[in-house]
Amino acid sequence: MDFFWSDHKPDAARAEDALTLSYGIELIGMQRDWNEELQSCREFPHSTPQERILRDRALYKVTSDFVDAAIKGAIGVISRCIPPINPTDPECFHMYVHNNIFFSFAVDSDVEQLSKKCNSDTCSKIENTSSSIKSSEKATANGVKL
Questions:
Q1: What DSSP assignment string belongs to 103-142?
Q2: For residue 65, how many other CB atoms are within 10 A of its CB?
Q3: Over the stretch 119-141, which tens digit does the pLDDT of each residue have?
Q4: Which residues partner with 102 through β-bridges?
Q5: pTM for the structure as a whole
Q6: Assigned domain for 3 exists
Q7: How, if at all, do strands 101-104 and 95-98 pair?
Q8: Alpha helices, DSSP H only, in 11-48?
Q9: Which domain holds residue 64?
Q10: Where do the Clu domain residues begin and end (predicted)?
Q11: Contact of 132 with 125, CB cutoff 8 Å
């Protein structure tokens, strides 16, 4: 009997990710205010070359941290590990806030047409369910058991 275990390679980082992946949340302290951090870095003095270097390093650090948090948050949204803030709306309109970053899915069509489509899909599901109930009631009334 041939097993497919030969393709498996151990990966210590994979096991670590399962336990420590926080999807971009800062594990220690308060959540970051990205806009405030970026604006304060922009206000650093930049008249001398040394001041410019310090300002650019700070801007690079905040930008890099934001991109890392946004990537991890997007992975969490796509893998459905982060719950939507509006779970009762249709899935195409779900919005997410994670680590003070707003996430939503891109909508390629007109919003009015999309909402009509979502409503018509819901209506067609209800009609299909009610028609199947009516047909089962008719079959039971005629003595036929489904």
A1: EE----S-HHHHHHHHHHHHHHHHHHHHHHHHHHHHHHHT
A2: 15
A3: 665 555 545 544 444 444 444 44
A4: 97
A5: 0.59
A6: no
A7: antiparallel
A8: 12-20, 34-42
A9: 20-106
A10: 6-146
A11: no
